[in-house]
Amino acid sequence: MLKDDSKFTIQKFRDVVPSMNFGYDGYKDMPTWHRVYPAAEFQKDENGNLRMKAFNGLLLLSFRNILKPEDVQLVKKQAAFLPSTLIAVTGADGRSVEILVKFSDEKGELPTDEEHADRLYQSAYRHILPIYQSVIHAEIASQKPSIRSYFLLTLDTQPYYNPQAVALKVDEKLMLQEPTPSIPEAKSDPTDKKEKGMKGSKENIEKMMKYLNEKYDLRYNMVMKYTEYVPKDKEWIGFQAVEPRVQKSLTLEVQLAGINVSIKDVRNFLESNFIKNYNPVEDFLFTCYDNWDGKDHIRALARTVPTNNPHWEDWFYTWFLAMVEQWHNRTGRQYGNSVAPLLISKQGYNKSTFCRRLIPPQLQWGYTDNLILSEKRQVLQAMSQCLLINLDEFNQISAKVQQGFLKNLIQLPNVKYKPPYGSHVQEFPRTASFIATSNMDDILTDPSGNRRFIGIELAGPIDVSVRPNYQQLFAQAEKAIWNGEKTYFDAEETALIMENNRRYQQIDPVMQCFSESFTPTEDENEGTFMTAAAIFSELKAKYGASLEAKSLLSFGRCLKNIDGLKRKRTMKGTEYLVIRRK
């Protein structure tokens, strides 16, 4: 803009910028400030998501912390020196310069689909940024390059604009070779080592910490439980885990810089509370908090799953809230999210795609569908580090695992295991919820554990044509949780779920034999009271070796779960009132 608005919004903002030490997010006008997305034109889809309509081929470079007005003008002149600069304007804070650079692919063309456009944009950033940094000696703003990169609507009475700017051609397949980092020569005298002693050791550790903090942004990922790093001059590559090889590289880098420390010293620093904590889940949910538009996005997402079950939308809503609440790791919970939707259909109905899309792109590391339930430590670790576990092909899980390990696992509020390289068992808060898919419908084997699953048979393929509006989905969930909406199924709902699940229950061969030979009754004159052993004995006599003796151990429990089967306690034990079929 060449002129401020009637409220002098931008000028008032610039007046208070010198006193703002912790960023601009807390400024009162920031939530309603207009953003400029130069890379592309966008439009909203059915869920309110911004989707690319047309790609403009403009790269945004933001240079910041330019304290003097004359230096701001100098940066604009330096940008104007390059023929690919379309626009260079003073940023909204008056201390930055926003530069728009024209570019295209190697053929001089622009992509039409969003995914291709984003790849080209990121490649352009890696290629073009070093060119501009060689001319402009100012700090580049740290941001991950994306066609959704934006700057705040600004005011500049003297903008630079070149309508004849020449587009730089970028080959997205050509990756720039990473330059070898320049390492200062070591300046140390070996004869001084003995004299320095402990004092020297302390000084070297302090130097090492300062060196690494100056070159890298470091943070401890509280969910994944490891330290992450990113070079300050290459923040667009994103944070990476400090795995052993990286740790050794950092140690060598420090040592080659003339700082006499060991790998143990570096490791102690990287694994200490000198590294700031970072929780990616809380960070994401914070961006959603108090931003709900009032529409029911959660049930709308449930409606993309075609089913004849009239309760599905409400059941999914409650489960979704429970999943989000589980992510908060609140203390004092007696149970975790102890119910899992179970999507049932033939292949090709987009069940796995739907499950994966429940997690937003920035948290996709928290989704898994390849858990091996027999490896218990891996399962417990995943429950404390993942956000959603898909029990894909649920029909392949054995009855023994369903009735034992899984039934107990799904209700745990916390998990205990010995972490890799750990010396003892530790307790960790559970973050993961469960969902499941199956191509078969007779899959539930434990009648008493059926309340742990919400069996939903699909009437057709799930609609995955429209991307979920993740900010609104989770903003709605956060609002509901904050307002105290329940995140569990009460007794009435649980009874309804169990009744719904009867159609998906596997019928034990012994119970099939029972149904063919006996029928329950309420009339004591018509029926006979018999113990489980007596009934089983008659079945074995009738069906022979097909009934194993070990089946008797679970036969009594199965009888107790039969609706309408009257029973009483006697000297012989529990007896059941049945009629023999003829």
Automatic annotation (TrEMBL):
InterPro entries: BT4734-like_N, DUF3874, VapE-like_dom. The keyword Repressor does not apply. The keyword Nucleotide-binding applies. Pfam families: BT4734-like_N (PF08800), DUF3874 (PF12990), VapE-like_dom (PF05272). Residues 186-200 have a biased composition (Basic and acidic residues). Residues 179-200 are annotated as: Disordered. Coiled coil: none annotated. This is Helicase.
